[in-house]
Amino acid sequence: GKEGENLRRDCFCSFVLDHDEGLKYLSSFQPFKVLATETITGKALEADIYNAIPTEKVDGTCCYVTTYKGQPYLWARLDRKPNKQAEKRFKRYLYSLEDCKEFVWNVKEDFKPVPDTWIPAKDIEFSDGNPLPDENGHMPGWVPVEKNSKQYCWHSSVVNYEAEIALALKHHADPGLLEISPVPLSEILEQTLELIGTNINANPYGLGSKKQPLHLLVPHGAFEIKNPPTLKQNDILSWFEGCSEGKVEGIVWHCHNGCLIKLHRHHLGLRWPLPDTYLNSQPVVISFNRTKYDCDFEPRSLFHHFSNLDGQRFDRLKDIKFDA
């Protein structure tokens, strides 16, 4: 999952890329694997990683809530990417390893078109009024998720624009308990979240089924790690491999200056997904009081199904089933 609206290129280790989409893109160009070293980067130290809040990196797709058509809307991540000719030029540049020269993009001609509603991510740089690509050759951005969108149908399944709510997974007030509940979109305005579920990233958490797809939004930073490892490579390895809380995709350190520093299991040569994830080791309760909402939820919608499960508790997320 891609965490954080600021989408900074900050790293935990001297050889860790934290932007997964860029990682996939570069790996097709460059004949090496991205692995962590034992050295914490200057950027991470500058951001005061030692006093940052460590949180679980959730495996999904990044979303953003901001205003569209005068109301809070869910937006899907869409990176603007180079066309074939520009991609070839960029590949040649990367393989030539000419660090002395900077690659020059023609922003108006080198990139594939995007919908008119596309907006660039907040921290993207501009030149002459045009957004500039990052070091991976991408322009991170967003597109609004329309009510009956076919392309973003899993995104649209977790929002109801009539009631102005989204289905969110977060901690319950009781320790050790998760909660699925509707959240007003106005409460998560200008926040980024991770969409997880049946049809996202091969469903590492085992949610729903082909017959009954189940998707949820997880606000970024929602799952703080209670017993994090120290910032030493061996301790982090031991934590990932030796405790239930370490059965996660990775760690995202939320620094006080707004910087996000990420470490994926893959950066340490560890596998993901896992058969038993930490997220699936915790019980979950459904809190959905439908009398609060003066609209009828469509009978096949997740909102309808979850409202019928109000107050029910399940041992694990993957145990949630809707009545046929």
TrEMBL record:
Reaction catalyzed: ATP + (ribonucleotide)n-3'-hydroxyl + 5'-phospho-(ribonucleotide)m = (ribonucleotide)n+m + AMP + diphosphate
InterPro entries noted in UniProt: RLIG1 (IPR041211)
Cofactor needs: Mg(2+); Mn(2+)
Any single Pfam family the record assigns to this protein: RLIG1
GO biological process, one term: RNA repair
Keywords: ATP-binding, Ligase, Nucleotide-binding, RNA repair
Enzyme class: ligase
EC number(s) recorded for this UniProt protein: 6.5.1.3
Entry's Gene Ontology molecular function annotations: ATP binding; RNA ligase (ATP) activity
Superkingdom per UniProt: Eukaryota
Primary role: Functions as an RNA ligase, in vitro. The ligation reaction entails three nucleotidyl transfer steps. In the first step, the RNA ligase reacts with ATP in the absence of nucleic acid to form a covalent ligase-AMP intermediate and release pyrophosphate. In step 2, the ligase-AMP binds to the nucleic acid and transfers the adenylate to the 5'-PO4 terminus to form an adenylylated intermediate. In step 3, the RNA ligase directs the attack of the 3'-OH on the 5'-phosphoanhydride linkage, resulting in a repaired 3'-5' phosphodiester and release of AMP.
UniProt name for this protein: RNA ligase 1
